[in-house]
Automatic annotation (TrEMBL):
Lineage top rank: taxon: Bacteria
A Pfam match: Acyl_transf_3
GO molecular function: acyltransferase activity, transferring groups other than amino-acyl groups
Presence of the UniProt keyword Transmembrane in the record: yes
Domain Acyltransferase: 12-372
Membrane-crossing segments per the record: 21-43, 49-73, 94-115, 146-168, 189-214, 220-241, 253-273, 293-315, 327-347, 353-375
Keywords: Membrane, Transmembrane, Transmembrane helix
Record bears the keyword Amino-acid biosynthesis: no
Coiled coil region boundaries: none
Name of the protein described by the UniProt record: Acyltransferase 3 domain-containing protein
Native source species: Brevundimonas viscosa
Amino acid sequence: MTSTATPTDRLHGLDALRAGALLLGVVLHASLSFFPQQAWIVADDSRSIGAAVVFFAIHLFRMTAFFLIAGLFAHMMLARRGWAGFARDRLVRIAGPLAAFWLPVMAGIVTALVWNAHASGLIVPGAPPPPPPTYDWTNFPLTHLWFLWVLLLFYAAALLLRAPFAALDRGGGWGRIVDRTTGALVGPWTPVLLAAPLALALWLDPAWIAFFAVPTPDEGLIPDAAALVGFGLAFGLGFLLDRRRDLLDRIAGWSPLFLAMAVLSGVAAWGLAGGPRLTPMVEPTAAKALAAAVMALAVYSSALAAVGLCLRFLSGRSPVRRYLADASYWIYILHLPLVMLAQVWVQDWPGPWWAKLAGVSAGVFAVCLVTYELLVRHSFLGRFLNGRRVPWRRAPQAAAAVPAE
């Protein structure tokens, strides 16, 4: 099958998936306070295994799919702008927001932690405060903005690896070999091929908690091996797929199979992980090897299923999806302190967990969307985050150019 897209076409399905991956982070973090056991700083009075199921289903594919798309878009931008333009853009739109928003986000998180400590009776009025934590490069709290730091590492690696390849490939022979190899990698066997190195990395990780699938590198400036392998393979595959856009049609065509693989392996992975059991599998036993293999298969099959399904069903133009895609970056940056504050606020309220989860998620979405519209979309922040500032209203000349019916 050959793709109708060219390298200059906008891939609306992948835009939608990238936005969905970021927006689902709100629901994912909101669900943590409703786990049946203590899994988060805030523990709601209403808890259920259902909240853990919601978290597991989202976490299984979300960031892996995001890094696959990020790799594809990275190669697209690199081809258009060259390495200097690419590096300049990524420094402004990835490193810039990380540097600008980390401190305000951290202040919001600390505020939520202090409020929760008072609400839970952990801080006695008049008692001396606990000593502040000490941080270094091994435990630096990247918070939920860790993905920006990891993206910067992958961008740097892509530039370093591509430079000698491009210098040696003047005639394009190596490029054709790479393209043929990429074509051979993409098929119903793709999740299995990708899962093998990730399963090994998970098996060798003494701190691996199976329920969390690919570990989140949110502490420390050097991500652990399992995160680098899991997300790095997805980024690398996406980077290569931009050279072979026709393979996106192949992924879309196999999406029903990928979805079936994801459901079966995901259910098995849940069972092998012991559900929301939060103790690490320390020893590299046979049971851990099986859990790692099934979990790795579930991670990549679910990510590829999400990519294929979005390419099949969300590739048309949609003003609503485009708006949410533009807003998703701001929403993800802003959401975690708001989620934590909302969790503290509602933790003692009566009501079922699912209603409170929906209320926290909807409330945070509403605040983020309002602030995006009023503070970001039409201001310099819109250019800073998304590369463009949308005017408040259409220019009169453009409106006059529309013919009357």
